[in-house]
């Protein structure tokens, strides 16, 4: 298990959304009649890590959530939504400011601004950037898809593969291939971004 993949938290001190993610992961795994070992092989996430996520003891990074979703063939919103997946084909999503589902990872605090499911080409989130340095962030992330970020408050530093760090301020935008290793930190502290993620085949 990679210590940087997940953040271990104390009982009763789980990050927002950790219990929901864990319950949904267990439901999907059991629906497929899969053991933790089989689920680990399918998702490339260790069985020990999956167990801790299911029990709300760890909060997965966005990178790990992507691997879980790809392994089980589900959307990110299926993983973080407290409601069971519906069979709706078409709907309109309206989310007032501050009311979106919240999920915290070791690197970011996400608020989901869309209710999209399978077949929709992108996912929109607001994210607070939690790490001020790469030492705090840990290994950079890489996964399938395309990302676009727009700084809403504060300033950030974006690291992409071996390229020079990019410093962005309010209103600045950057788009990049998610398969390139990447990380977003806030050296000055307290920064938020609008994050648009497009996965291959929809989210």
From TrEMBL:
The keyword DNA-binding applies. The keyword DNA-binding applies. GO terms for cellular component: cytosol. CDD domains: cupin_XRE_C, HTH_XRE. One of its GO terms (molecular function) is DNA-binding transcription factor activity. It holds the Pfam family HTH_3. InterPro entries: Cro/C1-type_HTH, Cupin_2, Lambda_DNA-bd_dom_sf, RmlC-like_jellyroll, RmlC_Cupin_sf, TransReg_Diox_bact_type. SMART domains: HTH_XRE. SUPFAM superfamilies: lambda repressor-like DNA-binding domains (SSF47413), RmlC-like cupins (SSF51182). Keywords: DNA-binding. Residues 25-79 form the HTH cro/C1-type domain. PANTHER family: HTH-TYPE TRANSCRIPTIONAL REGULATOR, METHYLPHOSPHONATE SYNTHASE. This is HTH cro/C1-type domain-containing protein. It comes from Thioclava dalianensis.
């Amino acid at each position: 298990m990679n210590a940087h993949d997940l953040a271990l938290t104390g009982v009763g001190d789980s990050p927002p959304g950790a219990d929901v993610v864990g319950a949904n992961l267990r439901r999907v795994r059991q629906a497929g009649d899969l053991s933790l070992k089989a689920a680990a092989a399918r998702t490339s996430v260790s069985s020990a890590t999956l167990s801790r996520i299911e029990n709300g003891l760890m909060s997965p990074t966005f990178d790990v959530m992507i691997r879980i979703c790809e392994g089980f063939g589900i959307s990110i919103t299926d993983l973080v939504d407290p409601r069971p997946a519906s069979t709706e084909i078409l709907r309109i999503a309206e989310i007032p400011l501050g009311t979106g589902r919240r999920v915290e990872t070791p690197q970011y605090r996400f608020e989901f601004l869309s209710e999209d499911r399978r077949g929709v080409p992108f996912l929109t989130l607001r994210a607070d950037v939690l790490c001020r340095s790469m030492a705090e962030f840990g290994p950079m992330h890489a996964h399938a898809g395309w990302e676009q970020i727009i700084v809403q408050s504060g300033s950030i530093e974006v690291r992409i593969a071996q390229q020079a760090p990019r410093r962005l301020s309010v209103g600045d935008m950057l788009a990049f291939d998610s398969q390139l290793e990447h990380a977003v930190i806030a050296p000055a502290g307290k920064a938020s971004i609008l994050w648009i993620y497009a996965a291959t085949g929809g989210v």
